[in-house]
Amino acid sequence: MSLKITDDCINCDVCEPECPNGAISQGEEIYVIDPNLCTECVGHYDEPQCQQVCPVDCIPLDESHVESKDELMQKYLKLTGKA
Questions:
Q1: Concatenated DSSP letters of 35-56
Q2: Measured distance CA(21)–CA(7) in Å, rounded
Q3: How far is CA 66 from the centre of its chain?
Q4: Core-most of 1, 18, 36, 40, by most CB within 10 Å?
Q5: In a domain? residue 1
Q6: Cβ neighbours, 10 Å, residue 1
Q7: Which whole-number Å values give the CA distances from 81 to 8, 63, 74, 78, in the listed order?
Q8: Is residue 4 in a domain?
Q9: Max Cα separation, the chain?
Q10: Mean pLDDT score across all residues of the chain
Q11: Residues 31-42: tens digit of each pLDDT
């Protein structure tokens, strides 16, 4: 499942550089996560790095982009060219 950033985001800028897939970018008002690039850090880390550094805990799972760990790993392999 992809992650998403909620309206509670305070634009602190700490999540964007932590994303190994470049899935996080500045949106019109708050940071946003591209679900096509988000792997919940599967393949890179044991835990989603953006969630680890977020000071306001505003990065939950995105229920509209449900993916299994296997699907996330396949996405990781495709994104990194290791597939």
A1: TTT--TTTTT-SS-HHHHH-TT
A2: 22
A3: 13
A4: 40
A5: no
A6: 18
A7: 34, 27, 10, 5
A8: no
A9: 36
A10: 96
A11: 999 999 999 999
Q: In the numeric block, which tokens belong to residue 24? A: 């996080």
* Torsion angles phi and psi, residue 25, rounded to 5: -145, 165
> Phi, psi (5° rounding) for residue 64?
-85, 0
Residues spanned by the domain of 71: 16-80
Asked whether residue 45 is domain-assigned, the answer is: yes
Q: Is the pLDDT of residue 83 over 90?
A: no
The Cα 62–Cα 80 span in angstroms is 22
73 token code pair: 């790993």
Angle CA 21–25–12, to nearest 5: 110
- For the record, the structure tokens of 79 come out as 């994104």
CATH of the domain at 60: 3.30.70.20
